[in-house]
Design brief:
The protein is mainly α and 115 residues long. Helix content is 93%, strand content 0%.
Length: 115
């Protein structure tokens, strides 16, 4: 879980808890009812925080899988480009060798004509 997600959940929890406490303290109820309300609201808040946490975990998993797929695609593309680069290099080496051989042959022919 990223720091931003953790901070959001922490803020959600603390803000909700403060709201519940203030709301309960200002409500005109008996002590027992107030304690029951606090317990119920705290449980609801924990359930909501757990739900938000699970959603954040699922979103993180999806983002991880998407990034992993992109990396695999990039590796595959790099492998293809490396193979093509090797082919082009071999082709250019062959062309250069043929050009040098032709140059040497032309030199030998010219030399033979002059002697």
């Amino acid at each position: 879980m990223s720091d931003r997600q953790f901070d959001f959940l922490k803020g959600l929890f603390v803000g909700g808890l403060i709201g519940v406490v203030i709301g309960v303290l200002y409500a005109p109820k008996s002590g027992k009812e107030t304690r029951e309300d606090i317990a119920r609201k705290a449980e609801e808040l924990m359930d909501k925080a757990k739900e938000e946490y699970e959603q954040a975990v699922q979103a993180s998993k999806k983002a991880y899988e998407a990034a992993k797929e992109k990396v695999l695609q990039a590796e595959e593309k790099a492998g293809e480009l490396t193979g093509k680069g090797k082919e082009i290099l071999q082709d250019q080496k062959g062309r250069l060798k043929r050009a040098l051989d032709a140059g040497v042959e032309a030199y030998k022919e010219e030399k033979a004509k002059t002697t």
